[in-house]
Design goal:
The chain is α+β, with helices and mostly antiparallel strands and 222 residues long. The chain is 20% helix and 34% strand. This is Protein MIZU-KUSSEI 1.
């Protein structure tokens, strides 16, 4: 079975992201908000401050991508056409939320999801089993959610009016607080469809500066 570094489709996408979007990343991107997370105490307050929707921001065709999870638990990825629509792609990644925070704090992050299904009877985002890589390192396998859990719906509902931001959300169940705070990061992403077997998502910095700090690649093996 080919690894990420042996898969031409993934490597082509990674080279494209590196070459065509290479630039300084010291701008005022969404990643900077993660440095505030240890100081946040009110999820609702941070939603209001960092995520107040803007007609200008929501007027284009950019999609909404959200990473969320308890600090000591696994991180989930939700992709939506807009913040008020249900996710068309929802998956719990095989990595801890705290580990993703560290990757984001260190600079550029590239996440690749590779489907090994060879039937091609489904749309790419409808595939279920995915191998997950973060910055070239394999994290494990994940299965796309057919339906959102109560907690995932809780997060999506809280963030219905949020176009972009990062912060702490109130837990749905008090017992879940044992896993640490429920954190989230939402940003707008440019969606580039390469073919029926490949898609790329590039984070759009809110101030328009720098390149994509976070890129997501979905690839189906041929």
């Amino acid at each position: 079975m080919p690894s990420l570094t042996e898969t031409p489709g993934v490597m082509s996408l990674l080279r494209h992201a590196t070459e065509s979007r290479r630039s300084k990343t010291g701008g005022g991107g969404v990643f900077k908000m993660f440095k505030l997370l240890p100081m946040l105490s009110s999820g609702c307050k941070m939603v209001a401050l960092l995520g107040r929707p803007s007609k200008t921001m929501l007027a284009d065709k950019a999609i909404a991508v959200t990473f969320f999870g308890y600090r000591r638990g696994r991180v989930s990825l939700a992709i939506q056409e807009d913040p008020r629509s249900p996710p068309f792609f929802l998956i719990e990644l095989p990595m801890l939320t705290s580990s993703l925070h560290k990757e984001m704090a260190s600079g550029l992050v590239k996440i690749a999801l590779e489907s090994e299904t060879r039937t091609h009877k489904k749309k790419l985002v409808e595939e279920y089993v995915w191998a997950v890589y973060c910055n070239g390192r394999k994290s494990g396998y994940s299965i796309r959610r057919k339906q959102a859990s109560d907690e995932e719906r809780h997060v999506m509902q809280l963030l219905r009016g949020v176009s972009m931001g990062a912060g702490v959300l109130p837990c749905l169940y008090e017992k879940d607080a044992a896993d640490g705070e429920l954190t989230y990061m939402r940003a707008r992403f440019e969606r580039v469809v390469g073919s029926k077997d490949s898609e790329s998502l590039y984070m759009i910095n809110p101030d328009g500066s720098g390149g994509a700090e976070l890129s997501i690649f979905l690839v189906r093996l041929k």
